[in-house]
Amino acid sequence: NCKKTIKSNEMRLKTVAKLSVFVSVLLFCIAVGFYAFTRVDMAERNREVNLYSLVPADCVGVLESDNISYFLNELPSINYGKELSNFHFPGLFEFLLHNLNEYAVQNAHGLSNQMSHLMVSFHKPGSLNDQVVYFRMGATDQQLLEDMLREYAPVNFLPKEEKYRGKTIVVYPLGRDEFLASYSGDGFLALSYQKRLIEQVIDAKQDKTSLNEDEVFKQILAKKKSYDYLTLYARSAPMPFLDDKDKCWSEYEFHLNSDVLYLTGETYQADGNMDRSELLECIQLLDGEYEDNRFISTHKDSTLVYIEQALEKMERGEQSLFNQCVTNLSNEAAFALVADMSEVVKEPEYWAAYLPAFVLENAVLFKPFILSAQLSLHQERPSHMWVL
Question: What's the CA angle centered on 96, arms 90 and 100, to 5 degrees?
Fold first, then answer.
């Protein structure tokens, strides 16, 4: 019996030893696999090109999204989606976004994660053709784009290659007297209707003179971004009375909910921050006014008075959307306005002192909306909120 017991124990120990070796080998394999995966993932991340290193520094604006597919899917479901359907950035951005997304949905699984991160730069003189669209590219994205262009191009689709500073520019014919120039590299693609703009992109990258080197814009690049963002950067102040002769950049980050479109951000200046006295000095040059279709307040005390007047009107039964927007203002803002955009369309010259040229030039696109705008100082930097 003793011998049987000893033998049984020995077998048990051998089994445990074998199991321990198996578990050790398994854990080692998992560890090696995880390490390899992490290194590959880090390598992939490190290979992601900084698209701002391609953007010519003299651009007048930039639109960027890390997930344009999210916004394309989200916009139709919001209550004001029908109104926004008339709003778009015309030109190349609209052509690529509409056709490429439609083609990708029908012939693939939509845009890849890399391609869904895109950027658009806007350039002088500001025609519909003065845009460059930039994509981060995955392994199969180039083929997807070429297939899409082939579908929308003439039958005799024959792209031709040209050399510029040792780099290849591919020119695609799109129709009569219309061409699309492209420049690609490791993980990126830039496209424009203007070959000269693609040449400027190559210059910016080769000479390290891109927007990535702009001292004011670097303040924006240093700011940590959220996920699923859509942000417009403009080389101007959010309101004309703050303009500093192209020495500032303003950001407008888009936020959506079912009833409201918010654009929030800050203004970044060449000579550092703006103190409160400077901001108030600019605002005090303006006139305040409150009527049924316009509201301008140059002081938080007057904002509070106007809010109380709007509340009284609503209690008397004047339940207009305009009055509701006035009551939703913060009385802590240094400057506030509410504008019925249908009235702005009729009288743009009145609003020229308060609204950026981009809004005035495209006021008809915002016609169904009431616009609220507020300006305050956040950490000694002008901060703005626009609500449509």
Answer: 140
pTM above 0.85, yes or no: no
Query: What does the block give as tokens for 290?
Result: 């409150």
Q: pLDDT tens digits for 209-265?
A: 999 999 999 999 998 888 889 999 998 888 888 876 567 899 999 988 878 888 999
Short-list 152, 199, 203, 189, CA closest to 173: 152
Give per-residue pLDDT as tens, 268-283: 887 766 666 677 777 7
Pair 261, 254: CB distance under 8 Å:
yes
* Predicted confidence (pLDDT) at residue 57 exceeds the cutoff of 60: yes
Contact (CB, 8 A) for 210 and 54: yes
Question: Residue 55: its pLDDT value, please?
Answer: 97
Backbone angles phi, psi at 79, to 5 degrees: -60, -30
